[in-house]
Write a structure and sequence with these properties.
Layout: H1 3-7, H2 10-28, E1 48-51, E2 56-58, H3 59-64, E3 68-73, H4 79-95, E4 99-106, H5 114-124, E5 130-133, H6 137-141, E6 149-153, E7 159-163, H7 170-174
Parallel strand pairs: 3-4, 4-5
Antiparallel strand pairs: 1-2, 1-5, 3-6, 6-7
Length: 176
Amino acid sequence: MSSLSVSVPRFLRCLVLAGVAFSLASCASEPSLDASESQLSVDGHGLIAQDIDGTQHELDAQFESGQAVALVFWQTWCANCIKEAPQVEAARAQWGEQVAFYGVVSGPDQAVDEQKMRSLVTKMGLNYPQLRDRDGSWSGRFDVKGTPTVMVFSPQGALLYRSNHLPEDWQALLGS
């Protein structure tokens, strides 16, 4: 018998293991693009959200301007999200003329520490809007199960890419 089983009651071990499993699932899930998702389109659906500075953003306007759109769902407590943030900013700096980048943090006001969010955005030097999905409608619409989740839509609004990390070849993805 291991020392863990002797010193920690079984229900407590199960609780700890369940917590670890939940943390891994919610911060490192591997969303993937399957055939049914490739038909997903956001064009014309009136997706509007407010960023942390109070500015309203309409995705349809981005598509109408001929830009692709990248949505990066993240959370302030997600280590993988924080680790990937500099890479997202580098992609934005390189591809920002062709792709409108948006960070999306879901959850009601009482569940999201906006001060911590602002602090992280400043610390990480993120220069793209950080949207608040307060009612979870964006996460629900795009079936976001964990963070980070990165989704890239064509200028026509068709889903091109979905994963828990950035695309490796933006040029091929965008057809540039």
